[in-house]
Design goal:
- The protein is an alpha/beta fold and 325 residues long.
- It has three domains: 61 residues, Nucleic acid-binding proteins (OB fold (Dihydrolipoamide Acetyltransferase, E2P), Beta Barrel), CATH 2.40.50.140; 160 residues, Rossmann fold (3-Layer(aba) Sandwich); 79 residues, Probable gtpase engc, domain 3 (Ribonucleotide Reductase Protein R1, domain 1).
- 29% of the residues lie in helices and 24% in strands.
- It has seven helices and 13 strands.
- The strands form three sheets. Strands 10-9-8-11-13-12 form a six-stranded mixed beta sheet, with helices on both faces. Strands 1-2-3-5-4 form a five-stranded mixed beta barrel.
- A hairpin with a 7-residue loop joins strand 6 and strand 7.
- The radius of gyration is 22 Å and the shape is globular.
- About 3% of the residues have low confidence.
Amino acid sequence: MNITNLGRITEVRKNSFTVSFEGEEYPAKLKGSFYEIDADKLPVVGDYVNFIKNTQGESMILSVCERKSFLQRPDQSKTGVMQYMVANVDYCFIVTSLNEDYSFNRIARYVSVAMQGGATPVVVLTKSDLCNNVGRYVREVETISEKVRVHAISALLGIGLEELSEYMKEGATICLMGSSGAGKSTLINALCGEEVMKTSEIREDDGEGRHTTTHRKLIKLKNGVSIIDTPGMREIGMANVQAGIDETFSDIIELECRCKFSNCRHETEPGCAIKAAIKSGELSKERYELFKNLGKENTKNYAKKKEISKWAKAMKKSNRKSAWD
């Protein structure tokens, strides 16, 4: 008799999966019925799954449990194809180094993706020992959203690491995202107290790092905290994250509700709360432009994503029909 167990996906490589169960890891494959469902229903790192354990070969994944959070992004902003990244994450550490890697725009994008997926965004500004004006960057990032937490640290020197202890609670899952060379692997090693991740040097000519992490992987620490490292992402597009954008820029959404006309375009209409807020200094023009640009990109890419998804479903249906004929 096959016994069904509850495990967690710790690694995904193409069609190969690794499931953690009772301190052991098992290679696993998907039950055939998985190939009849949409891609966003397939297991990703962090998912809890029901599976049949096989100690002599590959175990069989039967189903994916309901997710409490699910982070995704466009695989390529030109096509809008979605990349489903991680699930069941409590905190998303957005790791950005205080050198040429720093980008306010990119951090805002990560924040929107985290909020859309149901994770709490935590911006970790690394290499603070190399920056002369840390406070300025902390204050700037804090303006992205009142829901964002910001910490400046130096993992190599141990500066600010104690601030991250509030997230290191047993049972918590933390996902790290950021560019290559931002210091994700160094941070993980500092949090673990030992070298569990390989680190790479920074190129002197452009301040960027070489790729260290090549795929997403979940590591469970001795204190019961699970950490998911992800490959470096220099860019992150917007698609299917309008709710996350709205939550990130909730102050602008609130202002829009005060406009005299419900269909106000914030251009020449009288009684526009957005224009009044910009004029008074309550809202910066740059912040409003960022909100608009992210929204436009999201709408454009999501439309493409739906079109591609519709085409893919039609092809799958056609292939199944051909197989039966």
